[in-house]
Amino acid sequence: MENSLELKQIQFGYLNRPVLKDINLTVNPGEVVGLLGPNGSGKTTLIKIISGILRPQSGEIKIGGTALSKLNRKSIARRLAVVPQEFNVPFAFTVEEIVTLGRTPFLKPLAEKNEKDRRIIDSSMELVGVTGLKFRRFDELSGGERQKVVLAMALAQQPGVLLLDEPTVHLDINHQVQILETVRQLNTSTGLTVVAAMHDLNLAALYFNRLVLLKNGKVMADGTPTQVLTKDIVENVFGTHVMVDIHPVTGDPHIIITRNSIERNSIEPNTETENINGTRH
């Protein structure tokens, strides 16, 4: 129960623009849930609402059965960790120093980390495969390496719930797979609850057992990849023509974009051709 999430009638907007409308969502302990939807559908806003960065205008969020509104920032950070799209630091911190920031919710002001903290920091770096980078400067790493380090920092919080906001954006295929494989392994080994906003439908189908599809701030579909990523649903939500095939290895749905779904100003083929001198033949 510690790592469950419950959202009831969540409403949120910026000024006069509604972003989330009547969001009802229950995430059970140990579930791996992918949030999908077009740009502007509310995925990142929902991650910020769950994490407590933004407050809903109405509705209630519970973590482990406790209302988020009754928890202070330190208490929330002891239960829940966030891996944002971008993580920038103004100083030349080393990888180890970045991961150490994950212990902040457990340290008293100005207190030094103890042996337990050091073990957790080292273990977090080892889990995501960045131990060899511990003395490197964070700002000198590649995008994929930085994302791994931020994931290690989140794990150093020892959260029950891990939120990821498009964790594979800007990464090459290899690092995308490494990040998602690590998250799934952590879920399997520790029972970590995972909610991730995803941009790539096919990656989401491969790595998430449950998908929640948003459009205009509303939940349009919620279920297994097979239930959510149907041709009709995808075309309705994203407004583009697709084919839905079956992945030959996993059996998950695989989205194929067709050329006739791309708006382009094409010229009808002409039976006449023109040579370099402008002579038709």
How would you describe this structure to a colleague?
By secondary structure, the protein is an alpha/beta fold. The protein folds into two domains: 1-71 and 160-281, P-loop containing nucleotide triphosphate hydrolases (Rossmann fold), CATH 3.40.50.300; 88-157, no CATH class. 31% of the residues lie in helices and 25% in strands. The protein is built from nine helices and twelve strands. It has helices at residues 43-51, 73-79, 95-100, 115-128, 143-155, 173-190, 201-207, 225-228, 231-238, and strands at 5-14, 17-27, 32-36, 58-63, 66-67, 80-83, 161-165, 193-197, 210-215, 218-223, 242-246, 253-257. The strands form three sheets. Strands 6-7-8-3-9-10 form a six-stranded mixed β-sheet, with helices on both faces. The protein has a four-stranded antiparallel β-sheet with strand order 2-1-4-5, with helices on one face. A two-stranded antiparallel ribbon has the order 11-12.
